[in-house]
């Protein structure tokens, strides 16, 4: 998503030496994503995700991690110059948590802004994640698993965001689908930011579109307020729900209202 909006983007990842791995590398090249640190291995097959979309556009995903679980702290260290010189680092949990934590720590020690998406959510997340990242962005089910708060509406999202903030996270965003998101930072506690309502055809990857767009704004328009960045990222994520597919439903810069891409 960040690359489609025009940010200089790189991935650190592990793929199998197979059809999916080759296609994924090719996809990165087509989108001008630096794949220097995307390595292929013979030790496992590429990770795949089988996705089912219901008639109302909601999705269920079965992840087979494969080579993702071979991405190691050594791989993070091999990419340390890339991470040190980045403006924003995005991490999640489809690789070993210790690998993501190592990357977040590296970012923190080099004053690189980091966004942590605890997806898929795991119970007993290492509490160091909360202080290692600058922003934690979780959807309803992820925030619920991490806090024990069932999230059904804006109020419960505010409570979960507060609890995540109390765990040590500087900035927390809890997304609540078409109801928007809740932002909790020291200056803005429990601020509800509404989202555009669209007829969803396929919500798959909407969270990825949202986080990729946030990373784009932070990296390329650092003076844009966080609230405005969230509003714009919500619009972009909503657009991605209007067509089928995941990355192919993400709008590129030339498909967006130019006002979304100017200060
Ligand atoms: O592509 C949709 C989802 O499947 C993948 O496994 C990622 O989790 C992503 O959010």
Reported by name, the CATH topology of the largest domain is UDP-N-acetylmuramoyl-L-alanine:D-glutamate ligase
The total domain count is: 2
Strand content: 15-25%
Overall 3D form: globular
The level 1 CATH classification of the largest domain is Alpha Beta
Question: How would you characterize this protein structure?
Answer:
The protein has helices at residues 2-5, 19-30, 73-78, 80-84, 97-109, 128-132, 140-147, 154-166, 206-220, 226-240; strands at residues 9-16, 33-41, 48-53, 59-64, 88-91, 113-116, 135-138, 171-175, 181-184, 191-193. By secondary structure, the chain is α/β, with parallel strands linked by helices. The protein has two domains: 1-69, 3-Layer(aba) Sandwich (UDP-N-acetylmuramoyl-L-alanine:D-glutamate ligase); 70-260, Ribokinase (UDP-N-acetylmuramoyl-L-alanine:D-glutamate ligase, 3-Layer(aba) Sandwich). Strand 9 and strand 10 (191-193) form a beta hairpin. Helix 7 (140-147) packs across helix 8 and helix 9 (206-220) runs antiparallel to helix 10. The longest helix has 15 residues, at 206-220. The model has no long low-confidence stretch (mean pLDDT 97). The structure holds alpha-D-ribofuranose (RIB). Residues 49, 61, 63, 94, 119, 204-205, 207-208, 246 line the site of alpha-D-ribofuranose.
